[in-house]
Structure formats: C-alpha cells, structure tokens
Amino acid sequence: MSREAENLLRQLAAEGVSAWYEASRPEELDSAVLSSLLSAGFQSVRLPPGTARGLVQLACDLLLPAFVRSGGGLGQVSVPVDPRHAEEAGALLRGARALHRTMGRRNLTVRIPMTAAGVEVLADCLAEGIGVDATSVFSTDRYAEVLDAYMEGMERALVAGRWLSRIPAVTTVPVGVFDDDVDARLERLDVPQPREGAGQALARCLYRLREKRLTQDWWRVLRAGGALPPRLLWVGAGRRSVGDLVGWHTAHALTVPELEDAARREELRGDTLLNAGREGYGVLRLLEHLGARAGESVAALETAELDRLQSDWNLRTAPAAPACGGTARSPGP
C-alpha cells in the first residue's frame, strides 16, 4: 500500500471516519496480510459469503484490541447471513443466531438485508446481544425504520442487563449503486444532472436523520448504558469521491485499489455532512422534479440489490466448506 493511501486513512480517522477493508478476495487473506492492512490504518473488515470460518475468527481476533480500545466502535468484522431468507424473519433470526454462536466472537456483526423482515430481525438480534450490519438501505424511510429497530433492540438489551457497548451496530448504504441508478435514469430522460450527486444527497439526508434521533431523551438513556451512535457505512463511494462523504461516526468500505485511486485524485476538505441535510433534501426534490422519482428508484434498487446478494451467495458458498457462508446458510441450530 502506498504512502499516499496510508495518509488518506489517517486523514479520514482524524475526521471521525473509520475505514473498513472490503475483502473481495478473502482467499488472498492470511494473518500477515490482515495485520499489514490493519497496521496501515484499516479499522474494520467486511467479508463476503464463503469466507472460511478460521479466517473470520482470525480477523475478529486481530481486530479485538481495536474493538476493546474504542469501546466497541471500531474493530468489527461483518459477515453475511443467508440473503435467500431475506423475507423470512424466523429463518433470518435463526441464521444470525447460528452464525454468532459458531464464530463465538463479540466483535462479529451479522450482515442482514433491510427488508421488512430484516428490520424486525435487527431489533431481535440487538436485544439478544448480537451485533448487526444492517445493509442495503437506499432511503430515509427505510433508515427511519432501521433507527426505530435499533432503539427498540437496544432498549430490550438494556432491560435484559446487557452492556450496550458490546453490541456493535452499523448501517450500510450502497451510495455508489444509488448514484449509478439515478445517473442512468437522468440519462434516459435526457436531462442535466445536478452538480451534487444523488449518493451524496442521500448520505446527507441520512446523516441528518441520525443526528436528530440522537438528540432525543431516550437516546441519552441508551448512551448511559454504553450504547454508541449507530455508524453509517458508505459502500461504493470510492468510485466517485471519498471526500464527498466525510462526517463524524461514519465509515467507508474500500478495497485497496479504490483506496489507492482515491488517494491519487483527491484531498479531503473537512466535514461534508454536518448541517447539510437541507441541501441533501433539496437535491432529492430536484431529482423528483426532473423525473427521477425516488420511490421508483428505491423499490427497484432494493429488489436488484437483494438479487445481487443472493446471486453472490450462490456463487461463493460451497455446502461442504467450513465457511461463514455455510454456517449462515443453515437457519437451524
């Protein structure tokens, strides 16, 4: 990894932005490679389906010191639950429990698509002390549901006597996919694109929604119980501009090539999300006016993203392999 890339990771950390390593080829990872990535400045890891169980546990062990030092905010390892059960709350919950139990690591987060069933399971997992990466969020409406489920699950965990800092939670937003979809719609309509991208506008709206929730009285109760603000994790921003999405308690998921590309072509310019909700909502309203209707786009994106996750699962998982995919795929104990 280049010096420029490592410098960008340090700059992001100084802005309150953590860097997650997006492991597209887990078969290339081992203890030495992971240690090198973490030493360079990556603070958490996202692993795909089919990652060997031992590698998941190794990543968790290497990141555990960061998890402990940060009080649960960093040092997480995200692995997916079988997305083919995304519409079945019972099967999703059984899969999450099985994955959590099999890996046996407290800094593991189970990655769950935020369908209606997924939102329900998010609350149940948090209540049981299972960390969650709530993925495939494309709208403020869905994120509001995620925040409601987060508050409910953490409240139940607190009542059960759990220390909330030991229950990691993150929401993954595929801003790159959202950007590409809106750009394609505008191109078909033959209308000019706004200077501010759709992905950045969505990120600003979600960030504002989270900040408003964190001013409520009940959040103070959860915070006193050890809860950390739920982190927003941007995926796919490396294809556009990492610097467009910089804000306190957010994160970027990046491959090394994406990081290197970002380090070559841009400089950070400070926080771009705080107090920018009005601008974000303005851009989304403009897109509606231009004909790129958010409701249609979000519904199509949720369906397409779930199809992609299911195809990726089928491609990567092998029934006989002792992998996180094989464990998560079976909803039974």
Provide a count of the helices. 13
H/E element string?
HEHEHEHEHEHEHHHEEHHHH
CATH superfamily membership, which one? Aldolase class I
Mean pLDDT over the full residue set: 91
CATH architecture: Alpha-Beta Barrel
Describe the structure.
There is one protein chain. The chain is an alpha/beta fold and 333 residues long. It has one domain (3-328): Aldolase class I (TIM Barrel). Helices cover 53% and strands 12% of the residues. The protein contains 13 helices and eight strands. The chain has helices spanning 3-14, 31-40, 53-69, 89-103, 116-127, 140-159, 175-189, 198-213, 217-224, 256-265, 277-290, 294-316, 324-329, and strands at 17-22, 44-46, 77-80, 108-113, 131-135, 169-173, 231-235, 250-254. Strands 1-2-3-4-5-6-7-8 form an eight-stranded parallel beta barrel, surrounded by eight helices. α2 (31-40) links the parallel β1 and β2 (44-46). α6 (140-159) packs parallel to α8 and α7 packs across α8 (198-213). The radius of gyration is 19 Å and the shape is globular. Mean pLDDT is 91; it is low at 327-333.
What are the key terms here?
single chain, Transaldolase, globular, alpha/beta, 12% strand, disordered C terminus, 8-stranded parallel beta barrel, 53% helix, 333 residues, TIM Barrel
